[in-house]
Amino acid sequence: VAKEQGASSYHFFSQTLEDSLNEKMYLENGLRNALHDEEFFLVYQPLVSPASGKTTGIETLIRWRHPKSGIISPDKFIPLAETSGLIVDIDLWVLREACRQAKDWQDRGFPKIPMSVNLSAKQFYRTGLFEDIRTILEETGLNAHYLNLEITESVFIKHMDPVIDTLTQLRNMGIQISIDDFGTGYSSLSQLQRLPISVVKLDRTFIQDVEQSEMKSSVVKAVIELAHSMGLKVVAEGIETEQERNFFTRLACDELQGFYFSKPLEASLFEQYLIIEYR
Ligand code: C2E
Ligand code: MG
Ligand code: MG
Ligand code: MG
Q: What is the overall mean pLDDT for the chain?
């Protein structure tokens, strides 16, 4: 019986592995034409002021409307886009579309607040990133001060110096840089000190159950204090409950983001959200 079970569970395992490889190939094939076929769209999530809950920033997040499989989340396809190199053009499309949308909202009288865009680490392993971003700002007419680029610590794994050079060029132009998912990588805040960044976004794993764990809450407190002492703003991502909101408000986080305030919304719904808020 044991032998039989062993065989069948092995079969089960290989089946699943095969399925996931097939799924990968299926998605990767679809990705190749997705930009050209206009299958991507953007959603927007507010970053809010802790005390008032008013929107002080916007993060744009990509979605893929797959013709057969429906809406696919970036966690599923961004890694594939990175290994295949398609990420470079996808990110530039997102950047252009987000800047265009931000400028449009400004022109139509919505509050002037920064638009955050995620950039893959892969963007920094090529030349021309700075010029591409400058061109997009010129073409869309968005002032650089309203653009915030979110990068993860993995950007700094190799070739630290060229990356710092590019970030410095971007910063000198007026663009803000945030470290996203802080706490999930290997680096410490003191290592961030030499980087031209202005915001640290605490990963959701720091936020979850923070009040149940004394260890976690003291780490979080220390990180926020240290970041502030370095002149960095701190954003807590993934705020889902009122308790979490209160906790991070007490710790003097500069901005909060999460489903508690709003899920990411398509442009027209995000407009409604802003209209109701500012009425
Ligand atoms: P991220 O940049 O850290 O974005 C935050 C993620 O957390 C988003 O997932 C957002 O929908 C989700 N989130 C926000 N509030 C909450 C909350 O209260 N609870 C929970 N459980 N989740 C929350 P999303 O949109 O699925 O994006 C996942 C990741 O994909 C992003 O993480 C980012 O790393 C990447 N990504 C998204 N758009 C782009 C893009 O245009 N370019 C690149 N390179 N990466 C992108
Ligand atoms: Mg982000
Ligand atoms: Mg994040
Ligand atoms: Mg993330």
A: 92
Q: Is the ipTM of this complex over 0.95?
A: yes
pLDDT of residue 2: 45
What are the DSSP calls for 221-243, one per residue?
HHHHHHHHHTT-EEEEE---SHH
Rg of the chain over Cα atoms, rounded to whole angstroms, equals 21
Phi, psi of 47 (to 5 degrees): -105, 130
pLDDT at position 14: 61
Residues contacting ligand 1 via CB (< 6 Å): 45, 61-62, 73-75, 78, 91, 94, 118-120, 150, 180-181, 204, 237-240, 257-259, 264
Q: Distance between CA 205 and CA 240 in Å, rounded?
A: 12
**pTM score, whole prediction:** 0.93
Classify 266 as helix, strand or coil.
strand
Burial 139-150 (b: 16+ CB within 10 A, else e): ebebebebbbbb
Q: What are the residues whose beta carbon lies below 5 Å from ligand 3 (ion)?
A: 180-181, 237
The average pLDDT across 124-136 equals 96
What lies within 8 Å, CB to CB, of 198 at 6+ separation is 171, 176, 177, 178, 231, 232, 233
Point out the ligand nearest to the CA of residue 120. 1
Integer angstrom CA distances of residue 147 from 69, 71, 142, 150, 177: 33, 27, 8, 10, 9
Angle formed at CA 204 by CA 198 and CA 206, multiple of 5 degrees: 85
Atom 3 of ligand 1, residue of closest alpha carbon:
181
65 Cβ contact partners less than 8 Å away, ≥ 6 residues apart = 39, 40, 41, 71, 72
Alpha-carbon distance 50 to 30, whole Å? 41
176-182 and 147-152: which strand pairing? parallel
